[in-house]
Specification:
about 180 residues, alpha+beta, 4 helices, about 25% helix, about 30% strand
Length: about 180
């Protein structure tokens, strides 16, 4: 079953606990790197991974505490500015904590509500037998950075809403993410 911010069929009936609120805020956090010089071409910071020649996207993954989080950046090759991004989080029900699909839906539904109606943002949660897979996609050609920050509770760091691939890679790798194919 898939639920999206645009087509929810039911509202949650139970409030979140403080621990789950903290987990939801942490997992819904979006960070995109700062542009280096007010929007001009960026140089890769020390320690940044190089992206495969000829590619137009890069993916990074981190696993721990029962979670798997994957960031995929789509970018303009020349400017190295991110044009779109997805964050996929796979959560086993016992990490949420929830004892089944219905409990997981009740616990995670407020995450979808937090992004309802935000232009350029698509937010879905698919429920399997024992895991929930949340996908947050941002189209920076449509998205308004202030609306994303205000309504979705996400943070965008950068100059004039422009996201640098090199700054984002440096941030992710310094926080334990690894580049994947």
């Amino acid at each position: 079953m898939t639920r999206t911010a645009q087509n929810r069929t039911t509202a949650p009936s139970k409030p979140l606990t403080w621990g789950l609120v903290a987990l939801a805020c942490l997992l819904a956090f979006l960070l995109v790197g700062c542009t280096g010089n007010g929007g001009g071409k960026n140089e890769a910071p020390a320690g940044a991974l190089s992206v495969s020649e000829g590619g137009d996207h890069a993916s990074f993954v981190k696993r721990g505490n029962g979670l798997e989080v994957r960031y995929t950046y789509y970018f303009d090759k020349e400017s190295r500015q991110i044009t779109a991004q997805t964050i996929e989080t796979v959560r086993p029900f016992d990490v949420i904590p929830a004892d089944g699909k219905e409990a997981a839906q009740q616990a995670l539904e407020p995450l979808l509500e937090s992004t309802d109606g935000v232009k350029g943002l698509t937010h879905t949660i698919e429920y399997g037998d024992s895991v929930a897979t949340e996908t947050l996609a941002i189209d920076f050609g449509e998205a308004e950075p202030t609306a994303i920050s205000k309504h979705a509770g996400l943070t965008i760091l950068g100059n004039h809403g422009k996201a640098s691939l090199d700054g984002s890679i440096a941030y992710l790798t310094s926080n334990g993410f690894s580049e994947v194919e």
